[in-house]
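Aldehyde dehydrogenase, Acetobacter indonesiensis. Tokens?
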Amino acid sequence: MDLGGTLYALRTQRGLSQRELARRCGVANGTISLIESNAINPSVGLLRQIVNALPMNLSEFFAFEHIEERKLFYRAEELREIGGKGISYRQIGTNLNGRALQILNEVYEPRTDTGKAMLHHTGEEGGIIISGEIEVTVADQRTILGAGDAYYFDSNLPHRFRNIGKEPCHIVSAATPPTF
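Tokens:
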């Protein structure tokens, strides 16, 4: 079960922001974001708290079937936040099951990065820097890219992104297959 996707679907169906749901159940905003992105699994007690704030019970939550239509167009508020810790990843579409491509609107706050450990996964990824600067490391190559610059590489190669600037860095990226 995609617990995060189910929570996202139920929350947005009820017109609640992450902040409002967090307030209703007495947790930090980031907790809701992390659960929706499947970065953490809540305890049964925390899940019960969140589900009660929707309001519904656990059996209704687990019985919920969200069938996402294959939308063609998305408004800004419909992009799903799947990031955290100073990096925003706003994904087009809420459920990428059966999809070959993931498209993200990324924002790296100053002095943030994807972590000391290099990332690597099956597929390819590419992006274009809209504003700001980002240091991109792929295998043993490193460069700083600015507005209008782009990258495209085999994601099996170890890679890392780091905003070394004083301004947020905005990137529009795509990965195949979806990585989140």
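The two ends are 15 Å apart (CA to CA).
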